[in-house]
Amino acid sequence: MAKIINLSQIREVIEKLDPIMAIEEGFVAYSKGRVVVPPVGELIFNDPPGDAHIKYGYIINDDYYLIKIASGFYENVKKGLPPNAGLMLLFNQKTGELVCILLDEGFLTNVRTAAAGAVAAKYMAPKMVHRIGIFGAGTQGKLQLEYLNSIINCKDVIVWGVNQEELDAYKANMEPRGYVVETTFEANDIASTCNLIVTATPTKTALLNADQIRKGTHITAMGSDTPEKNELDPAILQKADIVIADSISQCLERGEIYQAIKAGVLKKQQIVELGNVIAQKDLQRSSDEQISVVDLTGVAVQDIQIAKAVYKSIFFNF
Amino acid sequence: MAKIINLSQIREVIEKLDPIMAIEEGFVAYSKGRVVVPPVGELIFNDPPGDAHIKYGYIINDDYYLIKIASGFYENVKKGLPPNAGLMLLFNQKTGELVCILLDEGFLTNVRTAAAGAVAAKYMAPKMVHRIGIFGAGTQGKLQLEYLNSIINCKDVIVWGVNQEELDAYKANMEPRGYVVETTFEANDIASTCNLIVTATPTKTALLNADQIRKGTHITAMGSDTPEKNELDPAILQKADIVIADSISQCLERGEIYQAIKAGVLKKQQIVELGNVIAQKDLQRSSDEQISVVDLTGVAVQDIQIAKAVYKSIFFNF
Fold first, then answer.
1. Helix-, strand-, coil-residue percentages of chain A, each rounded to 5
2. What is the pTM (predicted TM-score) of this model?
3. Touching check for A69 and chain B: CB below 8 Å?
4. Nearest CA in chain A to B82
């Protein structure tokens, strides 16, 4: 009989869990070609407008396979319901048996995305981060900072947002966790003072331009996951010494790398893949003067890894 | 919070439920173009060999959408496990919320397939069925007869199988339900005495040829759901007065109709779709002398309808 785990159980276990290593392993397996991820299944609804996406896949010779269902119904907000819903289903790869239903309501997608930001910083941030800059004061902007905690020993933070209310909430939320948080509406306040920058916004017009980016800056751009969204001026990727994709094939179709290639300032051969960067030291930063960009668009292997980590932690104290 | 229904609850409610009307409505909606069913998602495993299929879809403006997961791992039998596993997930089409998880382990797929056989007989069997012939003494061979019970008032049955043991088991299983069951290894014993024939086998070589089929015979062929499987000599479809597909687009790619078209003895324009036959009296049998064939390959709308029927019956006594 399959186990069923609800959101409060997942939230409880995730506090004790460090998903960063699981996500790292997933990226390495992905870049080694050991992950099978068929095209995403999609259902589109018109009245009211909504969509559901089915992502599924497995690591070859692993114990499990995963199916994740996520939906977005933006008119839910009017009804007092969250716009996003979702769950993950973990199956035995050797027998097909359903192992576990994770009723995470989309929470684990947020966690695995934040954990990927921490992986990017672990391998690509300069040795001494003196200030962290976060674009986006929403859920992901908060989680990115939270998951950097175990990787980056810096408590000086500046956050950029679109209204004072969300910025105040961000500050109120993060300062009790030991951070000193400044808030701003000016992108340059971040570019001119931070050497680790995370962009976590849904913007379609670039937040930063190339002139603002100083030597020794690392940027993790994780807001753009469609062909339309765009957080960084393509010239930033042109200026960067190292440009990293979570998935090269996916980043050729969406995200910052897609924008830079479309603009003609970046070539496919210049891109390296995050799983290879983790595995090969010579692909990592060779000096603290370099500018690096990691473009995160979200890969199904992250879902596979986070679901397994939660399941094992709950049932095997693993 | 989503409801979770396990197999024993499903078995209990299905006894009280008549899914035939639900399946009929589904076929009509399908033939009217009101059903959205994207291509099936597939995962293939090599060690041990296995596969998982993800079928999903919805009826436009209905209350729900469905995702069904089914797997086959044939080496499970060696481990004392069933080879097939599966579940269905019912979601709210207006909000994306997960409504119900049906842990049916593939059982509802068997039921919806048997119910489709009953729908075929309801609209296409001759007025007076004097004997029912079943090819295949397995689970589906039994269920087909069970679901004919409410539609066809005939208790005289002959069943064809591949070994005496399964035939004896079939007889022992069905006679206490009021049937008189003869068993045979000779296809012609069925063709020469029955005017309602159901084929429910996985054979790749035809069970029946055209010369054997007498006037006034109806055949429901439901065993073939791949391009390779084939239960009826293509000449039977050539000889038939009416040839019906559960889904024309699907039957052009698999099943008996696919075989007959490939053999050059049937044209696409000669095929009618089951949902249209249900809705339009002029497409149904016009005399008891006609030969008719219904080719069932399995359509996702059947899954949608059976899942909804079980859910509503359990939670709304509907």
1. 40, 25, 35
2. 0.90
3. yes
4. A95
